[in-house]
What we know:
Order of helices and strands: HHHHHHHHH
Mean pLDDT: 90
Oligomer: single chain
Low-confidence stretches: none
Structural class: mainly alpha
Shape: globular
Number of domains: 2
Amino acid sequence: MKKNLLWISIISTLIAVVNLIVYTILACLDIVEMRHISYLFIFGYLLCAWIPFFLNLLFKTKFGFVVITSYQIFLILSLLVGSLWGLYKMWDPFDKIVHFGSGVMIALLAYALFKESKNNKISLFWLFMLTFSVVMMCGGVWEIWEFTTDILFHNDAQVTEDLIGRMAIMDTMYDIICDFVGGLIGATIVVLLEWKKRKSKENSVEESPRFDTIQNDENV
């Protein structure tokens, strides 16, 4: 698993380098707007892309192929396609789609980490609350990131310029709502997966012959 994650991280690094070179060339030719924050997006993508590898290296955390692939796709869509190349501003629904998809993806990622825990025997209700809470926490952290970069780099990721009152917070609230809905669906999927896993385990235990029954059969 560590080798696969290493290769995925290396490929992500190549993607970051390609985007860095292409963006710099296009910015120098005045084809795209030169923005210092764009380099922060590339660095952020590169840093986040290596997180699963280091988690596996330091804590032996295992990730399924679907989860890690979804995570990498999310990073590309949010930090490169949406932020670096500006698809968020060119197509408004793209932002909400990414937020909704990230809610589902983060719930599955939280479940993958939960399964690696030694003390993972909790009720399905608390498993739902756990994964849903992780989604909302990540959504809140992302909004803090957007707020901070807007202030430091005079960006407008939260779409507040020239707006007042409720309209100034509309984009942020829609993002949080999309995180909320995606988190609900993702946490529901997690509960169904865990329920199926526990049910299958119970059935296998019930179907296996008991030790004392085998002993009695041998004595007879």
